[in-house]
Design goal:
Strand content: 15-25%
Structural class: alpha+beta
Radius of gyration: 28 Å
Number of helices: 26
Shape: globular
Helix content: 25-40%
Length: about 850
């Protein structure tokens, strides 16, 4: 028996002392604010305090804790005057929020030992906690504000507000449900049903803003609830109930405003009936219906019952833009206070009575299968209950996560490697190079590019390559399923509720109406959670056992069994006219299907030929934030830069000359270049690179400023972004997404590389698949082009221009053309 003190309370724990503190906190003490990220002490998001000093909970065993007091995020968030949490909320730090408890605990230790820390100390100390969403700039601002006790933001912001996501089958006391997105109860409380997944893009708040604008309620009075799996919530842009492609606001722009307007009109009619007057004499304002002539007023709660029996209105006029009170303003996100207090529930945080935990042994070789296993040693591990062979491998099912992990470690499994046993990154690259010499499927053929290239006295040619990339979400894959006779419940951080339901039906034989999908917050998505592999594992195990089972993936599982962004190769040839501008452009893209998309060539080139050569090496691939636009923008925008220098033009001016017929491209280019001080860069000895790209409904221009260190490393110091995403919902959320896109894309541009040897993925954690740290985060400036056009995407369009802007800046600094990602000067 071990005695331990956590947040001032004493506990006695029956343990041999080898259990990491993390699993005691999460599985036994129900303190789930401390998150699991890597399990090997690299990511830092499980940081807690031991007698005030920061420690990685995944690396500290219970016996090593000794008599030191443990403090978790729950311990510090009880203080309503906590300056750090106030500053975190004021600066709107979180995106997905999953890493933020660890960030806050590290910051707490920093401020308690070094008040006030300078910028270098903040940089050095906080770089030990990783954030895949790239919230680093806001973390630095929040820390600086918290260190200053007179900071207005730190003193004025409240941490008391909570937004609890009610379960979808809670029997809410809503009296008025005019449509699938709006609910109002007798107290006048408004709930917006969010039919998209919240994974850091701020969509839960954005969709609530759309409804609140038309409903005439203050956004601070709106609660949010994630939608169940239901055909009514199908994303009209994708044809399925899913979140991806930066479509959430684009798909909701009119439907959710109409949902709010519909509710508003029904409430107005209900009030008019009470007062026995014409509804045209009434208006809605501040959560009530008022009659200006008499001054009478009825709150929405008082009208909910009467409004619920009225017929839905037909045609409804939406508010004109000049009457917007909410849309277009920077509104604090509704979910951030809970994220900062460790109260937001992610998939790994869900618990149900009688739940068991499963980890799965999967083939180390891609596509391998089980031939034999021996579970005698595993069943001898305390807490292990079952060993089950499933489609993806062998599941070890136990009372808690630590027991399941130890049980899997003791498992003996023989694998049949399969046809990918000899696959390697080198072989894949060679296949791509051979295929690049072949003709492919013609996608675009304008003018006579081949003819002009044959005639040309001089051709410019380059080959660009990109690697496989992992998603590396901070919350590893997980799913909790409970299959009972006639019913299946699934609690899961998913981007594809419709796919979850479909998978469960296929595995259990249940009808769709008997499958209940409970969506949680997502600790990062980036396209990975569109897949169903982790869902199928949980449903299959629960179906066989008849018990609730949560499947938990480790970081190594996540890294080595991903659906990777595919590798690809671009071969581009061009010839220039007498004016130096491109006369012909020939582009051949080689790779799996997902790597052949996302080409944007807006430039005025008379002769353009584009071909795709499909080569699939068998590596599992899937959507990755901005998909193939992240790869093909690199090739296109780097090659345009090469043409500019070959023609003797300034790269920005060269693009301007070719974008006269593409005004939205031109606008973001000009804004980014001007704000970056492009024309002064050379005289000041600064090295800048530029790129401009359209993807997912939005236009983005980027200028990157780099320096080369004495060790020949690329240091990105500043990135200036300009985005035209049409109508703006929440400007600060757009800025946050662009900041995050820079961090995400810079991780890929400088470090991202999944390599394969003998059919095995070589990377296993953030040690060998590094992502950007706070110390490496450049300054980022975001400039939003004002527009009255319909909304475009935001989460993904910021990714594609970053890598080429950096590569072009490296050329400006060194004269070297880097045509392979990740960017390295040593190869």
């Amino acid at each position: 028996m071990i005695e331990i003190t956590v947040n001032g309370k004493q506990y006695e724990v029956a343990s041999d002392g080898d259990m990491p503190l993390l699993w005691l906190l999460r599985d036994h003490l129900n303190l789930r604010g401390t998150k699991y990220g890597c399990g090997v002490g690299v990511c830092g998001i499980c940081t807690v305090l031991l007698d005030g000093a920061p420690a990685r909970a995944c690396m500290v065993t219970l016996s090593a804790v000794g008599k030191r007091g443990v403090t978790t995020i729950e311990g510090i968030s009880q203080d309503a005057n906590n300056s750090l949490i106030r500053s975190w909320i004021a600066e709107q730090v979180p995106q997905c929020g999953y890493c933020q408890p660890g960030q806050l605990m590290a910051a707490t230790a920093l401020l308690s030992h070094i008040p006030p820390p300078d910028a270098d100390t903040i940089r050095d100390t906080m770089s030990g906690v990783l954030c895949r969403c790239g919230t680093y700039l806001r973390i630095k601002r929040a820390l600086a504000a918290a260190a200053c006790p007179t900071s207005p933001k730190a003193t004025e912001t409240s941490i008391d507000r909570e937004v609890t996501l009610a379960p979808t089958d809670s029997g809410s006391p809503a009296l008025f449900t005019p449509n699938p997105w709006v609910r109002i109860n007798g107290n006048g409380e408004v709930t917006v049903v969010v039919d998209r997944s919240e994974m850091g893009q701020g969509i839960a708040t954005a969709l609530a803003m759309l409804v609140a604008e038309e409903l005439e309620v203050d956004i601070g009075q709106v609660g949010i609830e994630f939608a169940p799996a239901d055909d009514v919530y199908v994303n009209p842009r994708l044809g399925e109930q899913m979140t991806g492609g930066s479509t959430s606001v684009r798909a909701a722009w009119e439907p959710l405003r109409r949902a709010g307007a519909e509710a508003r009109e029904m409430l107005i009619r209900a009030a008019a009936a009470v007062w026995d007057i014409d509804a045209q004499e009434c208006l809605a304002a501040d959560g009530a219906v008022v009659h200006p002539a008499s001054g009478r007023r009825l709150g929405y709660g008082a009208l909910a019952q009467r409004a619920s029996v009225l017929p839905r209105p037909g045609q409804i006029a939406l508010k004109p833009r000049d009457q917007f009170k909410i849309l277009g303003r920077s509104i604090p996100r509704l979910d951030i206070p809970d994220m900062c207090k460790g109260k937001a529930s992610y998939g790994l945080d869900i618990r149900v009575p009688g739940m068991l935990v499963a980890v799965v042994a999967r083939s180390p070789v891609l596509g391998g299968k089980v031939t034999h296993f021996d579970g005698h040693r595993t069943m001898a591990v305390p807490g292990v209950r079952h060993i089950i062979e499933i489609e993806s491998g062998i599941a070890v099912v136990a009372d808690d996560t630590w027991s399941a992990l130890r049980g899997r470690q003791a498992l003996d499994v023989d694998w049949k490697a399969g046809k990918l046993a000899t696959l390697s990154s080198t072989l894949i690259r060679q296949r791509f190079e051979r295929a690049a010499r072949d003709r492919g499927k013609v996608i675009r053929d304008k003018g006579h590019a081949d003819r002009e290239l044959r005639r040309a006295r001089k051709r410019i040619e380059a080959i660009f390559t990109t690697p496989y990339l992992a998603h590396a979400t901070m919350e590893p894959m997980n799913c909790l399923a409970y299959v009972q006779p006639g019913r299946c419940d699934i609690w899961v951080p998913t981007q594809a509720q419709g796919g979850v339901r479909e998978s469960a039906c296929a595995l259990t034989g249940l009808e769709e109406k008997n499958v209940y999908v409970h969506t949680t917050f997502l600790g990062g998505g980036f396209g990975r959670r569109l897949e169903q592999d982790f869902v199928k594992e949980a449903v299959e195990i629960s179906h066989k056992l008849g018990l609730p089972v949560q499947v938990v993936w480790t970081r190594q599982d996540d890294m080595q069994h991903d659906f990777y962004r595919p590798a690809n190769l671009n071969r581009i040839k061009a010839t220039l006219g007498e004016n130096g501008l491109p006369l012909a452009w020939h582009q051949r893209i080689v790779g799996p299907a997902l790597a052949l998309q996302g080409v944007d060539l807006p430039y005025a080139i008379a002769n353009v030929h584009e071909e795709h050569v499909l080569v699939d090496a068998g590596v599992p691939t899937g959507a990755w934030r901005s998909v193939a636009a992240s790869q093909n923008a690199f090739a296109v925008e780097c090659f345009v830069d090469e043409l500019a220098y070959a023609a003797g033009f300034d790269p920005a001016e060269y693009r301007r000359l070719m974008l006269a017929d593409s005004p939205r491209h031109l606008a973001v280019l000009n804004r980014a270049v001007d704000q970056a001080g492009w024309n002064d860069a050379r005289t000041q000895g600064r090295h800048l690179g530029v790129a401009v790209y359209y993807s997912f409904g939005s236009w983005v221009g980027m200028v990157a400023e780099v320096a080369i260190t004495a060790m020949r490393n690329i240091e990105v110091r500043r990135v200036v972004c300009a985005i035209d995403c049409g109508s703006v919902i929440n400007p600060d959320a757009i800025a946050a997404q662009m900041e995050g896109a820079v961090a995400f894309a810079l991780s890929a541009a400088l470090y991202g590389d999944i390599t394969i040897e003998q059919g095995r993925v070589q990377q296993s954690s953030f040690q060998d698949y590094p992502i950007l740290t706070l110390a490496q985060m450049p300054a980022v400036e975001v400039h939003i082009i004002q527009s009255t056009e319909p909304p475009g995407g935001v989460g993904e369009p910021g990714i594609p221009p970053l890598a080429p802007a950096v590569a072009n800046a490296v050329f400006a600094a060194t004269g070297l053309r880097l045509r392979n990602l990740p960017l390295r000067l040593d190869r």
